[in-house]
Design goal:
The chain is α/β, with parallel strands linked by helices. The chain is 46% helix and 13% strand. The chain folds into three domains: 128 residues, 3-Layer(bba) Sandwich (Glucose Oxidase, domain 1); 109 residues, Enzyme I, Chain A, domain 2 (Orthogonal Bundle); 330 residues, Alpha-Beta Barrel (TIM Barrel). Strand 4, helix 7 and strand 5 form a beta-alpha-beta unit. Helix 2 packs across helix 6. The relative contact order is 0.10.
Length: 592
């Protein structure tokens, strides 16, 4: 028996035989070509790209009805095929370096991997999986190799073990044939993981060398709660996990059944629990799990999957669809949070020494006003179709908001003159992500209708921690006394100016932190949709006044270690144990 630990990507427990997918390695034939052969190689590339386009369109048409809503992911892959960073660059490599199409495509992928490795934002960095998928499809066609997942030989339910699964593979997985999956690559925010959660398939990802540690037919347990994989478990472990699987299914049914109850504490304190989302395909999950709206709709994806910048009308239609489908719930659209370190077609701004402190988010948008105007016009036009709020990221001081509001007012006048409907009373919010925003929160609160605390960046900037630097990432600590004090300052400053304060960072969805955030007095928590039922359950078991006294005690402690120890004790003392919180306290993970 072997027990392995990795990333819990999709909750649940699966037990069954291994189906090992040893992906065929596509060997790249590298050869120089004569000048006269360059047009022929470029034509081979064009034919391969066109063939992959046909394959992806066929995959979309073959999608089972229950996953049709996720087809936009495959459509984005079609757009990536023609992106200038993929297609145009490969065409240039063939001509400039006089090399064959296979070699050119290989160089393109290497260049894109190098570019993505410099990205600080983990969510954006993990979109590399999507780019790699489409590039490898092209390589497969050029090499005459099939790259699609083939489960035709499976005659019993199995657990797939593979180096990686593409979103296209995941969408074509039959729940009758696949109990769960384990991959060597991937993360919780990859599209494959998002799809696994929406399909309810337990999954563990990022488990290095797992394909060389098991054989097809061996028994495997996949624990998507703990991020644990057990190969060839003994009878005792099998029996224990069989009971655990049964209990989890009962537990999850009860939690989801109660997910639409209001998030109200025992002493009547009401909190809105919202969802973070990026894709239209996530809307059913958002609704099913009891979200009271969207507290953070990321808009970067539309800029990263097109060869050219999306037009105002394209943005408008995308935002309108989200707002209409979630009506009557509110949707908070965050303006473009992207910078020179991120791959986004025509938005590449050149290399920066320190992208995290460079031209990004609101700074970037105010620098690229044409792009910003297009997005603001699209958002304002969509505001006529439902409850829509505007959220501006990485604001560091009042001057930025003054400039933003001046531009917004000008655009409103333009739309009015054009006779286009919009909501002139649209609410505007500021993301509190940098120390200067915290320290001037009293001033900023007079410039906004609401605050949304982005803890991912606030922790990083407050503690001077690069989350992707392995040497220091262990110092990334949301319970650091400085971080907790900053959150409290932001909340109190907003409330003194009579504006609501929410949180949309990862901290909002972690069970251990929910009582702390209640005690801070937050009005809204926005999180991964899968975390909502659990968060609501904790809120309904809480007493806000007791949580406030608890927070006052935490703010007097002198270290993250002491705060965490006290927080765990408070959680154990005040909340009945269940499967998810036990796993959280034991392994330091949650569903957020």
């Amino acid at each position: 028996m072997e027990i392995l630990k990795a990333i819990a990507a999709s909750p649940g427990i699966a037990m069954g035989p291994v189906f090992l997918l040893n992906a065929k390695r596509i060997k790249t034939i590298k050869r120089k070509v004569a000048a006269s052969d360059i047009p022929g190689e470029q034509e081979r590339l064009e034919q391969a790209v066109s063939e992959v386009e046909r394959q992806l369109r066929r995959l979309i048409s073959e999608l089972p009805e229950e996953v049709k809503e996720h087809s936009n992911i495959l459509r984005s892959h079609i757009l990536m095929l023609r992106d200038r960073m993929v297609y145009d660059k490969a065409v240039r490599f063939i001509e400039d370096r006089r090399i064959n199409a296979e070699w050119a495509v290989d160089l393109v992928l290497e260049a894109i991997k190098s570019l993505f490795s410099k990205v600080r934002d983990s969510y954006i960095r993990e979109r590399l999986d999507d780019v790699s998928f489409v590039v490898n499809k092209v390589k497969g066609v050029l090499a005459g190799t099939e790259t699609r997942l083939d489960l035709s030989s499976v005659d019993e339910p199995v657990i797939i073990v593979a180096r990686n699964l593409s979103p296209a593979d995941t969408l074509h997985i039959s729940k009758e044939k696949v109990l769960g999956f384990v991959t060597e690559l991937g993360s919780r925010t990859s599209h494959t993981a998002i799809l696994a959660r929406s399909l309810g398939i337990p999954a563990v990802v990022g488990l290095e060398n797992v394909t060389s540690r098991c054989l097809s037919g061996e028994t495997m347990i996949v624990d998507g709660l703990k991020g644990q994989v057990i190969i060839e478990p003994d009878k005792t472990i099998l029996s224990e996990y069989g009971l655990r699987q049964e209990n989890y299914l009962k537990y999850r049914l009860e939690v989801v059944r109660n997910s639409n109850l209001p998030a109200e504490t025992t002493d009547g304190y009401r909190v809105r629990v919202m969802a973070n989302m990026e894709l239209v395909e996530e809307i059913p999950i958002v609704i099913q799990h009891g979200a009271e709206g969207v507290g953070l709709f990321r808009t970067e994806f539309l800029y990263m999957t097109s060869r050219i910048l999306p037009t105002e009308d394209e943005l408008f239609l995308a935002y309108k669809e989200v707002v209409e489908r979630l009506k009557p719930y509110p949707v908070t659209i965050r303006t473009l949070d992207i910078g020179g370190d991120k791959l986004a077609s025509d938005l590449c701004c050149g290399e920066e020494m320190n992208p995290a402190l460079g031209l990004r988010a609101i700074r970037f948008c105010l620098h690229e006003k044409g792009l910003f105007r297009s997005q603001l016009r699209a958002i304002l036009r969509a505001s006529a179709f439902g409850q829509l709020r505007l959220l501006f990221p990485m604001v560091s001081g009042k001057s930025e908001m003054v400039e933003v509001k001046r531009l917004l007012s000008t655009i409103m006048d333009e739309l009015e003159a054009e006779g286009r409907p919009f909501n002139r009373a649209i609410k505007t919010g500021i993301m509190i992500e940098v120390p200067s925003a915290v320290l001037t929160a009293d001033i900023l609160a007079r410039e906004a209708d609401f605050f949304s605390i982005g803890t991912n960046d606030l922790v990083q900037y407050s503690l001077a921690i690069d989350r992707v630097n392995e040497a220091v990432c262990h110092l990334y600590e949301p319970l650091h006394p400085g971080v907790l004090r900053m959150i409290k300052i932001a909340v109190d400053s907003g409330h003194r100016e009579n504006i609501e304060v929410g949180m949309c960072g990862e901290m909002a969805g972690e069970p251990l932190y929910v009582p702390i955030l209640l005690g801070m007095g937050l009005d809204e928590l926005s999180m991964n949709a899968m975390a909502i039922p659990k968060a609501k359950k904790i809120i309904r078991q809480s007493n806000q006044e007791e949580c406030a006294r608890f927070v006052a005690e935490l703010l007097s402690l002198d270290s993250a270690r002491h705060i965490k120890e006290r927080a765990i004790k408070f959680f154990r003392d005040n909340y009945p144990p269940d499967m998810e919180t036990t796993d959280f306290l034991e392994f330091g993970i949650g569903l957020g």
